[in-house]
Amino acid sequence: MSRSCVLIADGGEGHLDLKHGSGAAGSGPPQNEADVTMTMSKEDFVQMFAGKLNATSAFMSGKLKIKGNLALAMKLEKLMKQMHKAKL
User: Fold this and answer.
1) For residue range 45-80, what is the model confidence (pLDDT) as tens digits?
2) Per residue in 5-56, pLDDT tens?
C-alpha cells in the first residue's frame, strides 16, 4: 500500500503520494488506495497550508475530518510545518 493522502476541499479532490521517489501531487483520486482521506472547506484548506490554521486544532474543532491512518495525517502536519520554516 502506498503512503498517499486524498485531500477533499469543497468537493474538489486531489492527492499526495509521499512514498514514491520525491513525491507527487495531482488532481483527482490517487492511482492506489489512499491511506488517509482528509476533508475540509476550501478556505480552511488554504489557511492550513498557508500556516494560519493548525491541523490539530482544525481536527478538534470539526473543520478537518480524517478517515483512515491518523498517524499519517499527523506526519502531513509535521511536513507542513517544515515547509513553512523553509519558506517553500
Assistant:
1) 888 888 889 888 999 999 999 998 888 888 877 877
2) 777 777 788 887 777 777 788 888 877 788 888 888 888 988 888 888 988 8
In the block, cell 475530518 appears at 65
From 18, 11, 46, 15, select the one nearest 28 (Cα to Cα): 15
What whole-number distance in Å separates Cα of residue 88 and Cα of residue 67? 27
C-alpha span between 26 and 78 (Å, rounded) = 20
Cell of 85: 520554516
Domains of the chain (ranges plus CATH)? 4-86 (3.30.1050.10)
Bridge partners of 66, per DSSP, are 38
Query: Which amino acid belongs to residue 57?
Result: S
The residue length of the chain stands at 88
